[in-house]
Amino acid sequence: MVGKVDRVSIPNLHGWMPSRILRNLAEPVVEWCHFGGRRFTEPFFDHTVQQAMQVPFNLVFRQQTPLDALVEWQAASPGLSPDGFIFHMSRCGSTLVSQMLAALPSHIALSEAPPVDAILRMDQRGASEQQRIAWLRGFMSAAGQPRNGESRLFVKLDAWHTFDLPLLRRAFPDTPWIFLHRNPVEVMVSALKAPGAHLVPGLLGVEVPGIDPAAAVHMPQAEYCARVLAAVCSAGIQHLTAHGGRAVDYDELPSAVVSGIATHFGLKLASSEIERMNAVTAFHAKSPSFYFEPDSAGKQGEASAEVRELTARLLDPLYTKLKALTA
Amino acid sequence: MESPSPSPLKAARLPLRFDPAGLQADLEAVGGGEWTAHFNTQFFEGDWSGIGLRVAEDAANPMYAGTHHQNFADAARLRDSTHLRAVVESFHCPLRSVRLLKLAAGSSIREHRDYDLGYDAGEVRIHVPVVTNPDVEFFLDNRRIVMGEGECWYLDLNLPHRVHNRGSTDRVHLVIDCQLNDWLQGLIARGTPEHGEESGFELFRRLVLRDASLQERLIAPTGRDAFVRLAVETGEEQGFRFTAGDVEAAIQAARRSWLERWIA
Predict the structure, then answer these.
(1) H helix or E strand, kind and range, residue B126
(2) Domain that holds residue B241
(3) Chain B residues whose beta carbon lies within 8 Å of the beta carbon of residue A62
(4) Last residue of a domain, which of B139, B174, B193?
(5) Does residue B52 lie within any of the structural domains?
(6) Which of chain B's residues have a Cβ under 8 Å away from the Cβ of A24?
(7) Which of A21, A64, A212, B196 has the most crowded CB, counting CB atoms within 10 A?
(8) Cβ–Cβ of B221/A57 closer than 8 Å?
(9) At what angle are helices B224-237 and B200-210 packed, to 10 degrees?
(10) Which residue of chain B has the CA closest to A54?
(11) Structural domain tally of chain B?
């Protein structure tokens, strides 16, 4: 498909956002939503898209193009290239990090954008790595159009994209990245309260390294959860050793965002900017209407014996390694 | 009967033709008091009414198609209508309800689907226009199907459809609910598939997607009513023919597809 790019004719997509990818159609398509100057200020990419879809125009005037339009639009109107990736083990403050980065008007922060996942999963439709890399670059460029003069693009991925880190590194070799982690008992307690899609066997169609899908279906939920988190952490450790990302612990938040993470992502922040980013921390990152309260003690207290046993066996050794890698 | 194979057909003009003059003569013999307003009052604006020619025996309202009923009987009006009866008798398949449905001048039926019908389920609704006019706009799956007087049509009414009678005369169709058998399958197979024309709004939509200045203009309204007004006004300026109802139907369909986006 990439080879045919020069024959795809695209409309003028100025002001349009690739809001989702429908990959289960006979010919997968990108759906574009008119964003104008809309910014990604909501905690997740999809929340912002849903806001945009409240405008009647966007319901009626969505448009669809082939995936290769992403590549062609990048050639016609190159946007920003990612200035930092946030990988994470989930429930460890990654949304707080992306929300703090989004607080500056000069930043675009994409948080768990479903089109990124859809492109990565296009391997299931027979797309080569080269094709997926081209589409990823096209998507980032389209999402990273400076609609209000923005100059930086940050991308928080889904937890399971840690497995796709090598491909993302090949697509964006110059982009610095962090892997965010947290005391695994706290992650387990939070994850079991409201399991993310990756913690339900088979829901995403993602292959989890080291877990047999047939066995996964019969596994108790807490064990499956612990094994997926262990796989994510193992991938994080492996790539941190090989590719020189930066490991960050939840306990370093929020101050690490304006210090260590900012430096790693090449940011030189003015004190007014730091103030603006810190203002976000007064709110719970995923539900901005609730005040943020540190909840580590509470989560530790809630852990069942089963959770403690699984964590000690499957996650604590990995957490120790991550702590050692954390500068 | 063999199990029906799925019909991908949206609409087909069947190879049966009736003399409109005879059907209209039967229609004129009908007294004004015989028409009953349609029970489905949420789905239309104006005047939509009908007469049951063959009705479910225990139905409270003769307009009710009674797709769940088993026993249907011819009404006196059918026995008195020579030409209408000849149409009905030319269907060599089990018949369920038979009705005359009238959409008065200026009236419209909002977009909806008839989930109780379906080729796969063996229930098929046939339309025979008795009297109509060129300004009747019937849209099936967003494409306009023009049905002439005395013609006989198969329509897949599981698909979203809407009607607007913009003309100055009433539109009356003879509507025959049939159970699919080999004869009817054969008749539909010999029909002429009709794909219909796109609506004026669909053509306008494509212009807007190519024109950044129209996009800027139409994105401004945040309220639905203001958006519909502006879309109709802008469409008129650009020479497209569509109404507020067409825009409403497009919004409704888009909202439905947006809400159903997680259903694979």
Answers:
(1) strand B123-131
(2) 199-259
(3) 254
(4) B193
(5) yes
(6) 264
(7) A21
(8) yes
(9) 90
(10) B222
(11) 2
On whether both B219 and B88 belong to a single domain, the answer is no
Nearest-Cα distance to chain B for A298, in Å, is: 34
CATH value at residue B69: 2.60.120.330
- List the pLDDT tens digit at each of the 264 positions of chain B: 444 444 468 999 999 999 999 999 999 998 888 898 877 777 788 899 999 999 987 766 666 666 667 788 999 999 999 999 999 999 999 999 999 999 999 999 988 888 777 777 788 999 999 999 998 999 999 889 999 999 999 999 989 999 999 899 999 999 999 999 999 999 999 999 999 988 889 899 999 998 999 999 999 999 999 999 999 999 999 999 888 888 988 898 888 888 877 664
- Which of B209, B216, B247 has its CB closest to that of A63? B209
> Is A9 within 8 Å of chain B by CB?
no
Whether residue B119 sits in one domain with residue B39 = yes
B205 chain-A contacts, CB cut-off 8 A: 60-61
- Residues B53 and B180 both lie in one domain: yes
Does the residue B6 lie in any domain?
no
